[in-house]
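Example 274.
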Amino acid sequence: MAEQSGSQKPGIVIVGAMGRMGQMLCKTVMENDNARLAGAVERSGNAAIGQDIGTAMGGAAIGVTVTDDAAAAFAAADAVIDFTAPQATIAFSQLAAEAGIVHVIGTTGMSDDEIAQLSPAAAKTPIVRAGNMSLGVNLLVQLTKKVAAALDEDFDIEIIESHHHHKVDAPSGTALMLGEAAAEGRGVALDAVSDRARDGITGARKRGHIGFHAVRGGDIVGEHDVLFAAQGERIVLRHLATDRAIFARGAIKAALWGQGKAAGAYDMLDVLGL
Ligand code: NAD
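Predicted structure in complex with nicotinamide-adenine-dinucleotide:
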């Protein structure tokens, strides 16, 4: 495990530190030789507040106490990684801007209005936001855009995603990223062609529309298919995530990439140079 006290390495705070992704992020930062865990934040009332994050996660103490004072934690850090919930993420963006630290946002399910509320913070500090932080999915986004641009509307596009039964939003942030990429490839606005959750007598499929389907069950980490279906042939682009560590590694890469960058809103395509 990498030394957490070395002050020369960028310090990263994890908010929502006791969540599924939060714990994976804490562990992945602790193992990273180029970063140190500078803080662990949870919401007031969480049972882990006041405990060492290492012991709260069932391991050895590492000298970082879980706190609900995000402002103090941010003041002593270079970046914050945030996989929490939309309203929490908006509040954290203001605190990150005040502290002048990079804000990496993995939170999904944000409405357009909620995303717009991040803009004042993005004017003051770098924000990297992506519905999926993995290299594989960001490659899939680019492939989807290219394939959608190459094929005409004889190919019906459907996006099928599967996740564990705890997930609270649908379609997934990744499915929406893939839908945006397909729409962009076709030169149309996703809102104008999106078909969500068909049910009942829906009528025949509309030419040029992009359909979304959400499967929820068990412990599925995250699976996405982009289906291009025409008469007599189908193309399926598929990404299977089997380990949450891929999202954590991408988020840390983004936090390190953001050091010294100009204020602004970025995504993983910027970080990965895709
Ligand atoms: P989770 O419910 O296990 O964890 C969320 C954590 O955030 C909880 O510990 C909760 O207490 C904490 N939290 C909520 N509000 C808070 C606040 N105001 N202050 C401090 N902590 C707060 O959920 P999860 O499965 O870890 O997913 C979290 C988010 O990350 C979801 O939106 C999910 O879709 C998204 N996600 C994104 C990616 C990606 O690559 N972008 C990958 C996986 C999950």
